Amino acid sequence: MINFLNLEYFVVAAEELNFTRAAKRLFISQQSLSNHIAHMEKEFGVALFNRTTPLTLTYAGQRLLVRARSLLTYKDETYHELADIKDFTVGQLSIGLSHTRGRVILPHVLPAYRSRFPNIDLNILEGNTSQLETALLHGDVDLVIGMLPFRVENIETVPICAEEVLLVVSDATLENTFGSRAGEIRMQLKKEADLSLLQDCPFILLKKGNRVRTIADELFQEAQISPHVLLELENIETVLALASEGMGLTFYPKMFAANREALSGTGDAGQPLGLYSLKNPITHGTLAIGYHKGHYMSQATKEFIRISKEMV
């Protein structure tokens, strides 16, 4: 009879397609791994690997890999569920979110969660949207905190709060671009933040693929302007720092700006900054927690969602 250990060994061997590497990954000898695979092939009466260089899976091996992964997932979820029944305060929780969002959200949520569940092992994965959604899909994290919509299938979401992307304008950039008209432009922006007024200003933006950049591009298209993009960067904090030095205008989520001195009136170099709501549906969204709807959700996970809704 095939047991879970054999299935785990087979999955690693199928992923590596090299018995030497697979054995090292499993901390067993290559001969021991070969014996486990041979036992499975005898049990099923089929070859699972083509003994070529490199190894390849037979059709039977390909089908077993799909089944084995499902069975191992069900095994893990069964153990998690039974552990919850015994004592749901013991376990682990893995959370994925962006670096910047973590700076804002985790100090509010984790202390409250830790005081309620001191024996839960917490793991935090920081990354971009694509990395986090892939991790959630593959079961590497239990939850992901991000903006709707999530772009992978089989994900359920729980809305947390509304979010808005603001336009960040430094006085220095206005003065460099408009000279004596800077005050006039500033007054017009306070009445109505119209991007067409700023088409001659340099912009510092995140690289394409980031949600904030996607919003910016949609705003430019709607305003029918082709912005002068001075720099494109990966890190939103670097973008903000350069904008605060007067190098250009940018866009920044309202939630991130909440506790930053640089956005309370002056930048790091003493340059006044303006935060403007564009009053456009494009700039508004919903922050949510996503989880894989096909995976068992522990009581500790449910409590994290509940506390997040209360604290964020």
UniProtKB/TrEMBL annotation:
Listed CDD domains: PBP2_LTTR_substrate
Keyword flag Transcription: yes
One Pfam family of this chain: LysR_substrate
Source organism, top-level taxon: Bacteria
InterPro entries: LysR_HTH_N, LysR_subst-bd, WH-like_DNA-bd_sf, WH_DNA-bd_sf
Claim: Ribosomal protein is one of the keywords in the record: no
GO MF term list: DNA binding; DNA-binding transcription factor activity
Matching Gene3D superfamilies: 3.40.190.290, Winged helix-like DNA-binding domain superfamily/Winged helix DNA-binding domain (1.10.10.10)
Keywords, ordered alphabetically: DNA-binding, Transcription, Transcription regulation
Boundaries of every HTH lysR-type domain copy: 7-58
Family: Belongs to the LysR transcriptional regulatory family.
UniProt-recorded name of the protein: LysR family transcriptional regulator
